[in-house]
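Q: SRPBCC domain-containing protein, please. Structure only.
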Amino acid sequence: MSTPTTVTGEVSPERDCPSNSSLVRLVYRRNFLLPIGEVWAALTDPDTLGRWYGTYTGDPDSGRVRLTMTDDHDSATTDVQILRCTPPAGFSVDQDGWLLEVALHQVGRTTTLEFTHRHVPRSEAGEIGPGWQYYLDRLNAVLTDTRPPLWDDYLDLVDEYH
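A: Structure for SRPBCC domain-containing protein:
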């Protein structure tokens, strides 16, 4: 087991909550030397999404799909409500109560992905944070055609998210 060398997520107080709230947001940024359309496709195309995160059934145009995780350590099925979708700039979804936002920006040949998990209880950030880092590293592996990371390598990152 080794600790991943990727950038961890940023934990910060949630903006739209009272100052004494225990809710935080987890923010991750990744840069890809790819056109924005290719990164968008990896986030929304069912076949590509299934290679790093999960597959979905249903029609996204209806605003709802069912997502089944496709990783060895997680095969849960959840309901996803699509709250906003503005291709290829981003989207926001409610995945079984988790508010997730994706924003994409391209400058020159580089596309920046900003992924935010909102309204996370601070006490759960250490459990949730390494998971998103793992999945974003899996996305990177798909986009760069490299070996995907191993989940066990992320277990030691819990303290990075407190």
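A: Brief note, in case it's useful. The mean pLDDT is 92.
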